[in-house]
Amino acid sequence: MQIRLLDLDESLPPQRELLARHQPATFAVHDWGPYIRMACSFGRFAQFERALAVCLGSESDARPTLTLYGSGDFHHMSLALLRRVQTPINLLVLDNHPDWMRGVPFLHCGTWLYHAARLPHIARIFHVGGDVDFDNYYQWMAPWRWLHSGKITVLPSWRRFQGGRWSSVPHEPLRLEQESPASAERVAELLQPFRAELAQRPLYISLDKDVMEATEAVVNWDSGHLLLPEVCTILECILEAAQFNLAGMDVVGDWSPVRCRGWLQHLMHFTMHPTLAVDAAEAMRANQQTNLALLECILSTLCAGSRS
After folding, report:
1. Which of 6, 42, 5, 9 minimizes the C-alpha distance to 259?
2. Helical (H) or strand (E) element with 128
3. pLDDT of residue 294 exceeding 90
4. 30-61 pLDDT, tens per residue?
């Protein structure tokens, strides 16, 4: 699998061990970072997509690619990467937040999944490991039609969501108990009803490291509840169910100082980001180790699948 790095916020180039071990193709697009961080207009996003196509040398990816591109503030860039995939796919999203808000007149890191769900080549979406913003005052912006139809299947980290329409939407949590990590047997049990559909199409994975505890990854957002071995178990189980047919993957959730341009980005930064005390060197070290572990998990699982 090809590995590439999109340098939007300069959080990844300092990860020397990652670069030395995997030698990813690196593309400097950090000039775009301040203009699209957290949010941007649809017009600016289209401009970024065109610039990205020029930078990468094509408008689509000829083979499966794993892309790392920095802070979760840029998770809406996953929409651009998904548009580069040319085959029908299923989509796995690992994220502490739903990222599916509808009715917003611009694109941001909390709305990209709604737009991805509208892409004709995305058949089913599995949102796994989330906890924040599912059943609070944002729930009225959820895509309830797709949640009820099963186009989007939700497997929360440890609890069932409360209120609103959640009582009529199946959403079994990964963990049977809050403090007990989900086992491979539990994950396999939850995936069992979907195995036939997962086997029908290649799988694309979008992973935000904020789905994990803060001890596993230092992020710009509030952290979730999963442990790194738990995330690896989920990846291994769902790749096995998809017959190791990976269409591509992106990884976000590295920490970087927030540098943005424009009143919208500044407003969202000051109203939505939690206040965090972060040591930049420690953040880089922790995130590099987690990135290395995730890459090892994916590559070794695909290698094992090719031998089976």
Report:
1. 9
2. strand 122-128
3. yes
4. 999 999 999 999 999 999 999 999 999 999 99
- Side-chain half-sphere exposure of 178, counting CA atoms within 13 A: 4
Nearest C-alpha neighbor of 265 from the set 32, 24, 51 = 32
**For residue range 87-108, what is the model confidence (pLDDT) as tens digits?**
999 999 999 999 999 999 999 9
Strand 39-40, strand 107-108: pairing: antiparallel
CB neighbours of residue 89 within 10 Å? 23
Rg for the chain, CA atoms, rounded: 18
Whole-model pTM: value is 0.97
Residue-range domains of the chain with CATH: 2-307 (3.40.800.10)
d(CA 50, CA 48): 5
Q: 20-38 b/e with 16+ CB inside 10 Å = b?
A: eebebeebebbebbeebbb
